[in-house]
Amino acid sequence: MGARTGKTYIEGLRDDRHIYVNGELVRDVTQYPPFQGVIRTLADLYERQHDSTYQPLLTYASPTSGQPVSTSFVLAQTWDEMEQRLRGERARCEFTYGLMGRLPDFMNAFVTDTAAIRPLLGRRTPQFGENAWKYYELCREQDLCLTHTLVDPQVDRSKGVDAQEALRAVKETDAGLVVRGARMLSTLAPVSDELWVGPYMPRKPGEEDYALSFAVPMATPGLKFVCREPYDTGQSRFDRPLSGRFDEGDAIAIFDDVLVPWERVFAARDVETHNLMAPAFPGYLTLQAVIRGTVKLRFLTGLACLVARAIGRTEMPRYQEMLGELIGSVELAEGLLTATAHDVLYNANHPLGTEEARAVTSAVSRGVMPGLGTLFGVSGRGMVGISAVRLFFPQAMTRAIDTIRLMGSSGLIMTPTEKDFAHPDLQEFLPRHLRGRDMSAQERVRVMKLAWDIIGTQFGGRQFMYEWFFAGDPIGSRIVYYGTDRRKECTALAQHLIDSLKK
Ligand SMILES: Cc1cc2nc3c(=O)[nH]c(=O)nc-3n(C[C@H](O)[C@H](O)[C@H](O)COP(=O)(O)OP(=O)(O)OC[C@H]3O[C@@H](n4cnc5c(N)ncnc54)[C@H](O)[C@@H]3O)c2cc1C
User: Fold this and answer.
1) pTM for the complete prediction?
2) pLDDT digit string (tens) for 140-149?
3) Of 214, 264, 328, 425, whose CB has the highest number of CB atoms within 10 Å?
4) Tally of domains within the chain
């Protein structure tokens, strides 16, 4: 089949999935009003793959069928192949202004990472390695849209995984693995085709039932998704320029004795393999996250410039300083992106060695910040990308949002609705009192509403949460670095100076 059209994507969503929203079991997600905006956005992206202007950018010829397929499946091992990924993924992020963390590209990259580590997955059970490869080919050839779920529910984090009502294997049959429990937090679930379940917290010996990775269609019997309240409340594009187009939806996935066929299992009841999966990834998924972060930072920086212009303060040194800092962050982001691409290429050509794997396993068994130091990267084997998404982007985006808030001030709040602008009584007043320096009142309010939708609405609040949490717990991620050799190197350097003073 190859790259899908928007129409086939929408048709694929009409199945027996169990999506609960606001007390309702939604029978057809394509007809549910709050999901229409994001479905249209995704359908447009799929459609572009068939537009002759974009096809060369977004697709490449499938190595098996020769059909155009998404570049986010390129198993890049050379710089030319890497550039194919970079161009395609960047274009899709730009079409969506970096506002969709779960563009299909994200999970395509995840599945590509999983395919790349098939020797690891198959080392004890060869079928699991083959399954990962076949699943990668299936996703690539059918252009499936995936959601994923990694994190155990937050029931009582003072206790172990068995206290969290987490997803676990409860039975094995000839047909497959029966799983029960729940996982958080499946972004894009309502409008995806498949759910991918993978590792996050490393498991300890004794937690074998929780050491799982597999994928199932959304409409699998026993699988239920309970969504958070949607942010698209039907307001116009003028009033809510983002909420109505980019609200991806988040859900808790509940597995009520779900049968996972063996051919869809990538790791099961094998703690060591489960814990090695993410550290062994080349990092295509991290790269996609860095591309998206870079594009979003560019968008926020541009928006801050528009807000300053709307109120006539672009010549003020204080404003130039604030904007200059954001532009400097964009420069840094672009550098981090290039560095990440080189790291990923290195990793793709140097699979995790036996010694590194042993070090990871030993770190996890010693409970080094419950093994997080080893999640999605191994020190000394390219940590730029994961450091960028965990440290740099959350801070840079917080700074951008604070800057927009400071600059826009009351203008962000005083934004009459589209209907107010149409009211005959107000025709004389709104254009006069709400105009900007070189902008009509409507144009100025458009800028401020866009800014408010990213910093102040429910949509904006969730975006902020997303940047801080999507790559894991921000405190743990920082403590991780304390355990790496970098600390020893840095300490040795400072100690060297002190020692040199004694001579
Ligand atoms: C908007 C959004 C979208 C998401 N989408 C997805 C998705 O699509 N798929 C998916 O799998 N996951 C998703 N996540 C979940 C995300 O991966 C988790 O939120 C993240 O890993 C943190 O885990 P947690 O929420 O369980 O928080 P916890 O681990 O419970 O942490 C809660 C707080 O406690 C702090 N903390 C934890 N340990 C310590 C400690 N030892 N000492 C001090 N403080 C500590 C943390 O820093 C954090 O501030 C999403 C999250 C958000 C907010």
Assistant:
1) 0.96
2) 999 999 999 9
3) 214
4) 2
